[in-house]
Amino acid sequence: MENKYQNEERYFKAKKQVEEIKGFYGNLTAYIVINIFFLILNLKTSPEHLWFFWPMLGWGIGVIFHGFKVFNCTPFLGKNWEEQKIKEFMNKDNERKDSWE
């Protein structure tokens, strides 16, 4: 019974990761398409003032951080850091329990 529960839990965790990756690629695709549109619009309407860089820069920063989060490679405090800290606290708690017994 427990093995079935573990398999279901792993399945739902994997499914969630796939949904997050799909969300990132959707965001990236929209970023590329919309910014190409902005570039063309900018060059057609006011080529002397290149404003399309600003939305591209702002949204691009968001896309980068979204990618860091989804692919667990955040250079700051990401999921790996969180899981390491959780394990550390759990181990400390177990050590305290063992010392009281």
Describe this structure in words.
The chain has 101 residues and is mainly α. The protein contains 3 helices and no strands. It has helices at 2-45, 53-70, 79-100. It starts with a helix and ends with a helix.
Question: What are the SSEs and their pairings?
Answer:
Elements lengths: L1 H44 L7 H18 L8 H22 L1
Helix pairs in contact: 1-2
Fraction of residues in helices?
Answer: over 70%
Span from first to last CA? 31 Å
Strand content: under 5%
Please tally the helical runs, counting DSSP H or I stretches of 4 or more residues: 3
> How would you classify the quaternary structure?
single chain
Report the sheet with the most strands, covering strand number, pairing sense and barrel closure: none
Average per-residue pLDDT, rounded, comes to 86
What is the number of E strands? 0
Weakly predicted, low-confidence segments: none
Shape: elongated
Order of helices and strands: HHH
Q: Determine the structural class based on helices, strands and strand pairing.
A: mainly alpha
Radius of gyration: 22 Å
Descriptive keywords:
elongated, mainly alpha, about 100 residues, 3 helices
